[in-house]
User: Which sequence fits this backbone?
């Protein structure tokens, strides 16, 4: 498996069973706690999930993590599925709440302010994780964002990620009281 720039420390509590002559029938259930997780330069707080591993497939439920300032973090909650043996599909269904936008971009401090919330559905290949191979769709919204000193209110859009390109096809916002409708795309670098 190829994981690009994923660093973590973890603890696991697992109950496992496997017939000695049939390794493919390995089963495990339990919980995991990652005390430090960095994915593509984004630092997540403690990550917790319940897990079940059966027939080469890892299912994560009750997934939760904090993201951003430890005194007032945003949250990520959801579930996921990862086909490991043989390597196959990856899926994650996430709800994000009050995630600080500055925690997702490596810009000078103060250039991005505010937070966003929404629902995201991620899909990809378990054997090749990277921004170029992930697909995502969902909806995001923010009461207020400040980008390079420009204040944006009531920001919302559906989002689509495919082949490293993030699209905002129906962006709606207000700036200085003026409603704005737009569409945009951003090419993301593979970390």
Assistant:
């Amino acid at each position: 498996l190829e994981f690009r720039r994923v660093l973590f420390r973890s603890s696991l509590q697992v109950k496992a069973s496997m017939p000695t002559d049939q390794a493919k029938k390995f089963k495990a259930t339990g919980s995991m706690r990652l005390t430090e997780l960095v994915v593509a330069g984004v630092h997540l707080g403690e990550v917790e999930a319940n897990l079940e591993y059966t027939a080469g497939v890892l299912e994560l439920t009750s997934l939760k993590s904090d993201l951003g300032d430890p005194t007032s973090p945003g949250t990520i909650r959801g579930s996921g599925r990862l086909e490991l043996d043989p390597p196959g599909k990856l899926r994650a269904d996430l709800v994000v709440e009050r995630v600080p936008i500055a925690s997702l971009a490596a810009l000078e401090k103060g250039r991005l302010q505010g937070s966003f919330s929404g629902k995201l559905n991620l899909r990809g290949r378990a054997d090749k994780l990277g921004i170029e191979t992930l697909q995502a769709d969902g909806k995001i919204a923010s009461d207020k964002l400040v980008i390079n000193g420009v204040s944006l209110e009531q920001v919302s859009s559906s989002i689509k990620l495919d082949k490293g390109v993030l699209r905002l096809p129906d962006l709606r916002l207000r700036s200085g009281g003026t409603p704005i409708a737009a569409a945009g795309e951003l090419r993301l670098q593979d970390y």
Q: What stands out?
A: The first strand starts at residue 2 and ends at 3. Residues 1-8 have pLDDT under 50 and may be disordered.
